[in-house]
């Protein structure tokens, strides 16, 4: 008897260890690690899913093991590397191993789907299985005998198994991006037709003339050649043609960019490529940090090191913050490596994502570019992992499992024996500090390509009389700058890191501020919708005509958002064409790309937006960058506020003057003397790093201390607080005197969707007991969780609010 160790889909910490099940004889050769199976669980007849982690010959267990009920996947969906990773990830992020395993799968496999056998070769056994059909659906009813046959055929590479999404909503999407091919095969029976069957004759004649192009898609025949669906159906009924459904892989990369070749490297670039190449060749799993000013040509270094990995017969994985925001980066990679590239990101439909995933699994691609979750791409023989803009907060998932892509990348690098390259003009303090200590190898690129000068930055003090006197949000300096740019037919980027129209609505009579009924935040006015909106839970309500509190009519809007700035720009420069890019204008698929393309083609003069316009864009005609209010990120109650401000200002400034023309940057601020703003204006990362390190040291923060954030949430505020104090006491007894315990305190937004949130912050240098204690607390509170408590543990949080 064989035994399978299975991680079951029962989300409690207890199930983070595998359960043993016996493998019925009929499934002996079928079950493999990495497959999902259905197993009985608990006393009743309940059947649940589980992942097979390991197969062994016998069990230590005294009683009788329950058998696996059926196999769900007829091929492993996760490799051994991923199974191992899931255990590490669950432990590291305090999450359920089952959630980690599910996170690694493409979403289609978590949705409703059908599994089909797809023949790869001609074979009598396949013919018997398919019985004249194009494909064979594997349902719950398929008997064990057949399952064994399917498995044998798959192991002999005679068939493949494909997943097709059955979810209705997803199907509509799938159709929009072209999916199923309908093949029409010509049968030589045209003569049987009567003369009045005009449509069918047309169809047959067309097919005869296009034999070379068969199979032809149903849709193409209909749309391009006017051959109706009905005619095809009748022709099929008459046995003249055969309509077959075949699943075609979708290609999510829209336009194929022009093919590029290697540029001649500058000295700095060459030094970087050589160092990384040496680690690729010697299979050394070390981490490099490229600290390169904006425009120093980091991308070319990435591309040429990827090439080095491919030369070693290896694959390469490249992570970017958010694909939709970095279309240029994706184009550069695809432009260099063409069909060998798969692109993974959240904008893909389930079907598209599955197709890209399949191409990677089948070794059809050598390079994967993607956002955070692409770090789980099923690549093997990885020779290089690159993380561009490594400081970006989006690399940390802020839901369970709360993993950082950098950590996962380093884990995979160790297993694959390959280097990791982190790149940024403004590295995270953690990474830069590790480079300082020699844990990472630092590579600095100080010069811009062609010795192009850095943009000239002008800081405007908004407290000055001439600035505070203006109506609206544009200082005379920024107004003049925009005027000049427009007059020269050059382009400008305007940043305001706050979307919406106004930040809040307040009564001048009684001071009442309109707030979300579910969350402890003020509602934001959205002019286009004429509604007040909550940015946390999505709650919407009409704009009140009078104060809900005192009935006064003196209720008005305060603060500024992108929508408001757009209106001001239209009033100040009626002739200028303005594009706005924020969460509200980019909801639809492809909306980002469209806005950026229009701007790139100079169909607009000003690109206005939130932080999403600050990243990686390379528009040669942009000579002015204006920052409306540099203080929005600075005023966050977060220990990373200065770091975020420095990063945002440096990145957005780097968008100006990237070609021959000199760039100008105008930063409006109420804190002109703040070091984050001053250093950013000089693109002086090193000075900023030293100052910020000093302050972090003073206040015992990352990277001097490790931080773990524990939050407790419940609908009852008193219960939440009680639970929080209990938790703190548990920790106090477990930890040494060196650990710093803060809280419990309400989170900045202490109520979200009608739940109260309290947090405890643990700062420590070395607390070997902390991890175990937290796991025990999580286990022990399972009973409490049922009563509506949510305890979340975040290792190295990206923000503490
Ligand atoms: P970064 O990512 O460091 O901000 P980029 O990689 O976008 O910089 O490079 C800036 C510009 O310089 C790009 O337009 C790029 O094509 C160009 N470039 C990079 N390397 C070279 C090179 N070796 N020779 C000529 N042009 C280069
Ligand atoms: Zn009022
Ligand atoms: Zn809300």
From TrEMBL:
Family matches, as InterPro entries: Helicase/UvrB_N (IPR006935), Helicase_ATP-bd (IPR014001), Helicase_C-like (IPR001650), P-loop_NTPase (IPR027417), PriA (IPR005259), PriA_3primeBD (IPR041222), PriA_3primeBD_sf (IPR042115), PriA_C (IPR041236)
User: Source organism's superkingdom?
Assistant: Bacteria
Task: Give the reactions, separated by semicolons, that this protein catalyses.
Answer: Couples ATP hydrolysis with the unwinding of duplex DNA by translocating in the 3'-5' direction; ATP + H2O = ADP + phosphate + H(+)
Q: Which CDD domains match?
A: DEXHc_priA (cd17929), SF2_C_priA (cd18804)
Q: Which SMART domains does this chain map to?
A: DEXDc (SM00487), HELICc (SM00490)
Q: Which Gene3D superfamilies match?
A: P-loop containing nucleotide triphosphate hydrolases, PriA, 3(prime) DNA-binding domain
Q: Which EC class heads this enzyme's classification?
A: isomerase
Gene Ontology MF annotations: 3'-5' DNA helicase activity; ATP binding; DNA binding; hydrolase activity; zinc ion binding
Q: Which residues form the Helicase C-terminal domain?
A: 542-696
Record domain Helicase ATP-binding: where = 279-445
Q: Which Pfam families match?
A: Helicase_C, PriA_3primeBD, PriA_C, ResIII, Zn_ribbon_PriA
Which residues are Zn(2+) 1-binding? 507, 510, 547, 550
Annotated NCBIfam families? priA, PRK05580.1-3
Assembly: Component of the replication restart primosome.
Role description: Initiates the restart of stalled replication forks, which reloads the replicative helicase on sites other than the origin of replication. Recognizes and binds to abandoned replication forks and remodels them to uncover a helicase loading site. Promotes assembly of the primosome at these replication forks.
Name of the protein in its database record: Replication restart protein PriA
């Amino acid at each position: 008897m064989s035994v399978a160790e299975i991680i079951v889909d029962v989300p409690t910490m207890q199930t983070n260890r595998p359960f043993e099940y016996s493998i019925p004889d009929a499934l002996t050769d079928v079950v493999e690690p990495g497959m999902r199976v259905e197993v009985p669980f608990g006393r009743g007849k309940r059947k649940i899913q589980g992942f097979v982690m390991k197969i062994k010959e016998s069990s230590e267990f005294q009683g009788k093991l329950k058998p696996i009920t059926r196999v769900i996947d007829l091929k492993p969906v996760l490799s051994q590397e991923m199974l191992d990773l899931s255990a590490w990830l669950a432990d590291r992020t305090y999450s359920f191993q089952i959630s980690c395993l599910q996170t690694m799968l493409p979403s289609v496999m978590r949705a409703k789907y059908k599994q089909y056998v797809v023949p790869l070769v001609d074979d009598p056994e396949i013919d018997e299985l398919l019985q004249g059909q194009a494909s064979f659906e594997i349902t719950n009813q398929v008997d064990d005998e057949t399952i064994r046959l399917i498995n044998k055929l798959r192991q002999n590479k005679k068939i493949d198994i494909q997943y097709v999404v059955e979810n209705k909503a997803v199907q509509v999407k799938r159709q929009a991006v072209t999916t199923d091919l309908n093949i029409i095969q010509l049968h030589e029976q045209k003569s049987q037709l009567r003369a009045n069957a005009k449509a069918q004759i047309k169809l047959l004649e067309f097919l005869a003339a296009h034999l070379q192009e068969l199979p032809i898609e149903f849709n193409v025949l209909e749309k391009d050649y006017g051959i109706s669906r009905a005619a095809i159906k009748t022709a099929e009924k008459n046995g003249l043609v055969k309509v077959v459904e075949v699943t075609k892989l979708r290609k999510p990369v829209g336009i194929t960019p022009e093919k590029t070749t290697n540029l001649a490297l500058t000295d700095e670039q060459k030094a970087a490529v050589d160092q990384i190449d040496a680690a690729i060749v010697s299979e050394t799993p070390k981490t490099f940090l490229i600290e390169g000013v904006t425009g120093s040509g980091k991308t070319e270094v990435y591309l040429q090191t990827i090439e080095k990995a491919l030369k070693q017969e290896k694959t390469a994985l490249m992570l970017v913050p958010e694909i939709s925001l970095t279309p240029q980066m994706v184009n550069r990679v695809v432009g260099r490596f063409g069909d060998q590239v798969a692109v993974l990101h959240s904008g893909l439909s389930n079907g598209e994502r599955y197709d890209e995933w399949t191409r990677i699994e089948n070794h059809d691609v050598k390079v994967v570019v993607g956002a955070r979750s692409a770090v789980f791409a099923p690549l093997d023989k990885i020779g290089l992992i690159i993380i561009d803009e490594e400081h970006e907060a989006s690399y940390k998932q802020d839901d369970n499992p709360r993993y950082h892509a950098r950590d996962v990348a380093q884990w995979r690098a160790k297993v694959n024996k390959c280097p990791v390259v982190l790149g940024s003009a403004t590295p995270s303090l953690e990474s830069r500090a590790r480079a300082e200590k020699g844990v990472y190898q630092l590579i600095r690129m100080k010069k811009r390509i062609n010795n192009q000068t850095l943009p000239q930055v002008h800081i405007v003090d908004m407290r000055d009389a001439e600035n505070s006197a203006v109506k609206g949000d544009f200082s005379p300096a920024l107004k003049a700058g925009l005027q000049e740019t427009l007059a020269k037919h050059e382009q400008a980027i305007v940043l305001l890191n706050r979307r919406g129209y106004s930040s809040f609505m307040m009564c001048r009579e009684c001071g009442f501020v309109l707030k979300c009924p579910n969350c402890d935040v003020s509602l934001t006015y959205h002019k286009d919708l004429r509604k007040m909106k909550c940015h946390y839970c999505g709650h919407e309500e009409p704009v009140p005509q009078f104060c809900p509190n005192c009935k006064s009519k003196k209720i008005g809007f305060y603060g500024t958002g992108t929508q408001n700035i757009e209106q001001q720009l239209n009033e100040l420069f009626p002739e200028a064409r303005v594009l706005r890019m924020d969460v509200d204008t980019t909801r639809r698929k492809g909306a980002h790309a469209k806005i950026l393309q229009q701007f790139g083609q100079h169909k607009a003069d000003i690109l206005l937006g939130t932080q999403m316009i600050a990243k990686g864009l390379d528009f040669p005609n942009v000579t002015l960058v204006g920052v409306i209010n540099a203080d929005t990120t600075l005023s966050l109650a977060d220990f990373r506020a200065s770091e975020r401000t420095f990063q945002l200002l440096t990145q957005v400034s780097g968008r100006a003057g990237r070609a021959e023309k000199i760039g100008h940057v105008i930063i409006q601020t109420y804190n002109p003397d703040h070091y984050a703003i001053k250093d950013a204006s000089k693109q002086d990362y090193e000075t900023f790093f030293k100052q910020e390190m000093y302050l972090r040291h003073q206040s015992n923060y990352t990277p001097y201390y490790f931080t773990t954030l524990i939050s407790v949430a419940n609908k009852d505020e008193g219960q939440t607080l009680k639970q929080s104090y209990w938790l703190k006491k548990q920790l106090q007894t477990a930890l040494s005197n060196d650990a710093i315990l803060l809280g419990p305190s309400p989170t900045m937004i202490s109520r979200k969707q009608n739940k109260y949130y309290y947090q405890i912050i643990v700062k420590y240098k070395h607390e070997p007991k902390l991890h175990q204690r937290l796991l025990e607390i999580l286990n022990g509170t399972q009973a409490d969780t049922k009563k509506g408590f949510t305890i979340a543990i975040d290792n190295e949080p990206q923000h503490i609010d």
